[in-house]
Each structure stands twice: as structure tokens, then as C-alpha cells.
Amino acid sequence: MSIENESAPRSGRLAPFGGAAPRLGAPPPSVPAPAPAPATAPAPVRRRSLTDRAEAALPAVLLAADAAAACTAVLAAHCRPWTLADLLPATGALLSALLLLNGSGGLHRSRLSPSVLDELPALAGRAAVAAALTATLAGCLGRTWPPFDTATGLLRLLAAYTVLVVLARAAAHAALLRIRRRDPRPVLVVGAGRLGRQVAATLLEHPRYGMRPVGHLDTAPVPLPDGLPVPVLGGCEVLEREVRRRGVRHLVVAAEDADAGAAAAIRAAARLGCDLWLVPGLREYGALLHGQRRPAQGDHLWGFPCLRLGRPGRQTVRRAAKRALDVAAAAVLLVLAAPLLALCALAVRLDDGPGVLFRQQRVGLGGRAFTLLKFRTLRPADEHESATRWNIAQDHRVGRVGRLLRRTSLDELPQLWNVLRGEMSLVGPRPERPYFVMRFTQAHPEYADRHRVPAGLTGLAQVHGLRGDTSIEDRTRFDNHYIESWSLWQDVKILLRTAASLIRPDGS
Fold first, then answer.
1. pLDDT of 331-357, one tens digit each?
2. Per the domain annotation, does 1 fall within a domain?
3. CA–CA separation, 369 vs 389, rounded Å?
4. Given pLDDT bands bounded at 50, 70 and 90, which one contains residue 380?
5. Is residue 412 part of a domain?
6. How many domains does the chain have?
7. Nearest-CA neighbor of 460 among 433, 423, 498, 501?
8. Vertex 113, ends 111 and 119: CA angle to 5°?
9. CA distance 61 to 59
């Protein structure tokens, strides 16, 4: 299953690192020992404010309000004598359809500016669809389920439900706003320009949003006015320290110009488990609206358009799903490939003597080093050569078996064991050696962001042809895009494209 052979970028690609690529056969350059990979610190312990707890409970409260309104509406619209056995099937069918429709439409989601009048058209429309589906189901089953058996009964049901759900949701929203004003949660504002200052002032003036700005994150390239209501704490380099020190769970990104600093803050905040809100400028917001009526998860902050970027709770579910796919697929592939693994090991042993497996330090999740396994295709002169030499494709020490393994990517098969151990994933950014991680990070600061997820046997960059002598900058861009747009189906697509590429190996 490969993926990527360890061939070097062209010498021009390495120019930004301060020198040309090492020549084939030349001794490796003398370099300082690479800095130890940063370890992922434990998640900060932060006090959950009343607002945090209320926001977490709100989806369940709104779901209960919808269910209670629907059940009460069925009772109110049922004018004939009834028994529990009469009402249970109809009520169960209505609730199933209604709660599913409301949930898929985002009607159980917390909003910055909750309004039951804004929700009313969607609630009424979905209730009508759910009632029609219930009546259709009753007809298909040959049952009579009052009040779904007459048009008058359906109208009474919808009218009662609409009134009751509006009252219940209005009470829930009012309670949430009271809690927000009582105990707002601390937030950091990314950007101290005009937009960032306006957003901070708005949050201070209107506690109904439940956010209390405690500082700006900005490199401050231009002099800032005196008397800022919220201090500038520094650039993105202080983000983790301030998140831990101030118990921050939320970041509001209000940088007027999208730059690398804002992107780095967004990625670091997501890694720390913070919720992210984006307040774009009007020009950027117009671009977001182009071609659609409103962006997904749109909201407003006292008139400022605001988009929610992250929900860390969902990441846990996604990581669990991805890990389950990795374990299941790696276990099956190891069993199916056992005869092929044995043949490869025997061929390496007969061609080049003992020492079938090649072990090398690579950098994975959170910047931690792990030992990557491959079938040996070359015996390096020493550890220094193994750690710092890029290209062995034309090395005379690579035998016929080694060339075949590299051309077919069969030398990568032992990494299925790395996947089973949890050190790697089937799909993710390809891992690199610590020495090159240090050099690439110096040239491309976004390179380190690849370590937000486990390294992979294959990845989005590799299926787009970015293997071997290709741009590190392009690989970095593809890897970060993969992380930020991840889905289980995307992993499946990458695996299918990788399998197709193995049928026609290109010898890279």
C-alpha cells in the first residue's frame, strides 16, 4: 500500500532552507542535532462557567421542548375518547419524524442571537411535514390514528404544536440569556485592529452573548490607540499560555486581513479544544454569501456577521470513527497480506543477508517521535546517513529486490503494524524524519500544523502526485486541507485512489 518513497525534492525546492540539496554519494552535511519534537501537553483544566454548562445542555432542552409540545398537541387535538394504546403509535411516529427533521435542520443548536420568531417558519414547516408523514404511514398500514385521519384534526394539531413550541422555546432562550448575563465566559479576540476593537467593545457592552473578552492576540504591526478596553497580550505564540492561564474556551477571530498568523491561531485553538467564531469584514462576508442565501451556521453579533468554525466535541467522535476504521482495516490487511509479507521478508533475507526490517525515527501526532517500520532496501553506512540523507533511488547499494520493493511500494507494508499500534493511521500526512521536520518547519511554519493528526500510510498529497521530488509547500497545503476538511468518506476515497495507483506503479 504505499505510498511514498523517500526521494528528495529537487535542489531548487530546498533552496529556501539555506542551501542546495545534498549530492548523491556525497557525505551528509554536518548539522546540529535536531531539537526534540514538542510533546503534546495535557489538556488544560478550565472551570466551566454557568454559560458553558447551559450551552452544553441547550440541545437537550430544546429537544425536550419540541417533544413535550408535540405530545401535548396530540392530546389537545384528539377530541374523541382515547386510550393510551390509541395514542402511542401515532405519537411515536410523529415524534420520530419531527425530532429528526428539527435536528437535521439545526434547530437544536445554540445560537449567539436566539430568536423563536426566527425559528418559527422552520418549526412550523417541519411540523407539517412530520404530520403528513405520520398520516401517510397510518394510511399505508390501514390504521386510523386520530387526529391524523382528518384535515381538521391535522390543522388543530399544527396550531396547538406551534403555540406550545413557541412558548417552550421562548422560555428556554430567555433562561439562556439570563445565565449568559450572570456568568459570561472568558474569550480571546484574535486581531486588535479596528474590527477586533469593535467586536471586543460590543461583547463588553452586551453581555447577552455570554462572552467576556479578556485580551487581544495580535502582532500589532502598526501603533495601536491608547486606552484599549482589552489589553493586547501578544501574538499567536502566547495563545496556549493565555488559554491555560485565563481558562479560555472560546476564540473570536476578528482579523481584518486573513493572514498566516490568524490561520495559525485558528489551528492552535482547535488543537486546544476551543470553540471558534469568525467575524469577517463586510468584503469577506460578501464573498462568503456569493452563490448562496446564507452561509452554514451563520449568526450575528450585534449586527456583525459571525460564523461558528469549530465544535471540539465532534472531533472526539470523528477521531473514534477514524481509529475504528484504522484498526479494522489494518488487522484485515495484515492477515490477508501475511503470505506476501513472508515472501518479501524471504527475498530481502536472501538478497542482502540478515536484518529484514528497517527501523527509522519519524515524527507523528503532536510532534512525538515513533519508530517506523519498512522492509530494508538499503543498509545505510551509519545513523547519521539514515537520519539526514534524502535520496537513495540511484544508490548502487540498492539491489534488485530492493528496487522492486520500492517501485511497487511493498517496502511500506510493515507500517500496517504501526497503524495497528496507533502510531500511524491509514490516511494522513506522511511522516518525516526529525532532521527534515526541523528544516521544513523553518521554511514553512505551517508544516508543523500537519502534526495535529496521526501520520498516514497515504494521504491527500500523495494521491495528487506529490511524492518524491515535489514541492514541500504544496504537500503542506494539501495535508492541512485534508485535516481541516476531514470526513470518513474522504479517507475511503483516498484509499481507493491509492489502491488504483498501486496497480500502475510509476517507479517513483
1. 999 999 999 999 999 988 888 778 888
2. no
3. 18
4. low
5. yes
6. 3
7. 498
8. 75
9. 5
C-alpha cell read off for 468 = 518524491
Model confidence over 58-99: pLDDT tens digits? 999 999 999 999 999 988 887 666 666 767 888 999 999 999
Same domain, 70 and 158: yes
Alpha-carbon dihedral angle through residues 312, 316, 321, 322, given to the nearest 10 degrees: 80
CA distance 163 to 176: 20
Is the pTM here over 0.85, yes or no?
no
**Of residues 208, 204, 205, the one with CA closest to residue 176:** 208
313 burial via Cβ count (<10 Å: 0-12, 13-18, 19+): exposed
Residues 364 and 452 in one domain: yes
The secondary structure of residue 32, as a DSSP letter, is P
pLDDT 10s digits, 451-463:
888 999 999 998 9
Q: What is the DSSP string of 203-248?
A: HHH-GGG-EEEEEEE----SPPPS--SS-EEESGGGHHHHHHHHT-
Q: Which residue has the cell 469577517?
A: 280
Listed in sequence order, the residues at least 6 apart from 355 whose beta carbon sits closer than 8 Å to its beta carbon are 376, 379
Residues 160 and 299 in one domain: no
Phi/psi for 267 (5° steps) reads -70, -40
- Rounded distance, CA 400 to CA 414, Å? 20
Asked if 362 contacts 370 with a C-beta cutoff of 8 angstroms, the reply is: yes
Question: Do 221 and 285 sit in the same domain of this protein?
Answer: yes
Provide the domain limits for residue 333.
316-503
Q: How far apart are CA 105 and CA 101, in angstroms?
A: 6
The position carrying cell 494521504 is 459
The percent of residues in the chain predicted with pLDDT above 70, rounded, is 76
Residue 287 sits in the same domain as residue 361: no
Q: What is the CATH number of the domain that holds 303?
A: 3.40.50.720
145, 180, 215 — which closes off a domain?
Answer: 180
**Do the Cβ atoms of 208 and 174 come closer than 8 Å?**
no
Main-chain dihedrals φ then ψ at residue 183, nearest 5 degrees: -145, 75
Confirm whether 33 is domain-assigned.
no
| Half-sphere exposure for 417 (CA within 13 Å, toward CB) | 14
State the Cα–Cα distance between residues 117 and 422, nearest whole angstrom: 49
End-to-end CA distance of the chain: 14
Residues 6+ apart with CB under 8 A from 105: 122, 126
**Could you tell me the three cell numbers for 387?**
537520519
DSSP letter, residue 105: T
252 phi/psi in degrees, rounded to 5:
-110, 115
Q: Would the pLDDT of 30 be above 70?
A: no
In angstroms, the CA 38 to CA 230 distance is 31
Instruction: Write down which residue in 134, 163, 180 finishes a domain.
Output: 180
Q: How far apart are CA 467 and CA 484, in angstroms?
A: 21
For residue 236, tell me if it sits in a domain.
Answer: yes
